[in-house]
Write a sequence for this structure.
């Protein structure tokens, strides 16, 4: 059997990575299988073998993100992934990818502080090798995601805009441009400008329809529904969330539980209790199926606030938020819960949740100050 030059294998692996970034699952799977078929015949090169192992883990992250159970036991795979760092010396590009993909894993697990630490380590390596601008855009996009979830609005908007301005010059990255719009819109929502968020989201919806990207159309509808919820236009919110659910069901997408939670919350605000109970039950089942601990925790809060009035369930949710560093959710739902309990004249419990929200706000401000230094 002839020996295959390692640079040819590395080139094919670069296309594999490009397919993952562009969310081309069929092309990514096909290219991965092609690489697997020739990797044993490749001339010896440890760096290319490490790159292969890193991309395998990145591929599993993608599968786990897109559909339930497809990624297998991701935690055990991550332990194998960590062994690369313990057994190999990683420098430059390989050190960057290790930290970048580890950050993506922790973000997927809702461990935001760990994710940010790995991303910042990756950023330190970003200029240590010959890195093209699209790779930088992909990194900026991922960093904008974690800053958004930590409610660091300035950092998130800045990185999302930097990513968008690069992606728009490369026609194959249309999906990433749409996802950048989602991040910008989410930040406008955090700043209490839902009308500005709707502008970005309607643009994203139009683009997703042009590209026939069903899952992105679903996400656009879900986020538009969240905007209308903030505006207290609950009928419009419900309509868009139902459209999101239908689109996610078409692709068995992992965002199904998230859309279900948001619709359950809106219906609870509308006091449509029969539908709330049905949605809660289906949402809990879906969240367990997709192993979505975030949604499971939030559904506990819905049950404790609206269905049974159980402060222990509500406290469990906020304990989960705190353990995961999800201070933005602590603040948002702390205020939502406190206002609801106040209207129900549960003053002592309302005060407890207001205190939770204030504590979360302090954590957000503190982390923002730390990230500036």
């Amino acid at each position: 059997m002839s020996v295959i030059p390692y640079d040819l294998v590395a080139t094919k692996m670069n296309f594999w990575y490009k397919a993952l970034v562009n969310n081309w699952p069929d092309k990514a799977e096909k290219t991965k299988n092609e690489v697997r078929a020739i990797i044993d015949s490749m001339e010896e090169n440890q760096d290319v073998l490490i790159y292969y192992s890193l991309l395998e883990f990145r591929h599993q992250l993608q599968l786990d993100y897109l559909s339930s159970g497809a990624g297998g036991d991701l935690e055990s795979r991550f332990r194998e992934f960590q062994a690369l760092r313990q057994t190999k010396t990683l420098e430059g590009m390989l050190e960057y990818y290790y930290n970048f993909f580890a950050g993506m894993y922790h973000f997927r697990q809702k461990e935001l502080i760990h994710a940010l630490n790995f991303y910042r380590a990756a950023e330190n390596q970003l200029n240590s090798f010959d890195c093209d601008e699209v790779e930088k855009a992909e990194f900026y996009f991922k960093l904008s995601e974690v800053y958004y979830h930590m409610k660091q609005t300035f950092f998130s908007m800045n990185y999302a805009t930097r990513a968008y301005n690069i992606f728009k010059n490369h026609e194959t990255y249309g999906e990433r441009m749409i996802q950048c719009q989602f991040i910008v819109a989410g930040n406008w929502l955090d700043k209490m400008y839902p009308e500005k968020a709707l502008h970005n989201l309607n643009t994203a919806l139009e683009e997703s329809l042009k590209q026939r990207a069903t899952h992105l159309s679903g996400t656009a509808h879900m986020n538009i529904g969240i905007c209308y919820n903030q505006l207290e236009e609950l009928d419009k919110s419900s309509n868009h969330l139902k459209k999101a659910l239908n689109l996610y069901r078409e692709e068995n997408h992992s965002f199904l539980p998230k859309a279900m939670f948001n619709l359950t919350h809106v219906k609870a605000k509308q006091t449509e209790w029969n539908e709330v109970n049905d949605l809660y039950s289906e949402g809990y089942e879906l969240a367990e199926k997709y192993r979505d601990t975030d949604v499971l925790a939030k559904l506990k809060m819905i049950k404790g606030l609206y269905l049974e009035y159980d402060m222990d369930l509500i406290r469990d949710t906020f304990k989960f938020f705190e353990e995961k560093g999800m201070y933005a959710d602590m603040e948002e739902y702390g205020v939502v819960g406190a206002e609801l309990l106040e209207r129900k004249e549960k003053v002592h419990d309302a005060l407890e949740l207001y205190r939770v929200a204030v504590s979360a706000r302090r954590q957000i401000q503190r982390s923002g100050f730390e990230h500036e230094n």
Q: What stands out?
A: Residues 42 and 115 are 34 Å apart (CA to CA). DSSP finds 18 helices and no strands in the chain. The domain at 1-131 is CATH 1.25.40.10 (Serine Threonine Protein Phosphatase 5, Tetratricopeptide repeat).
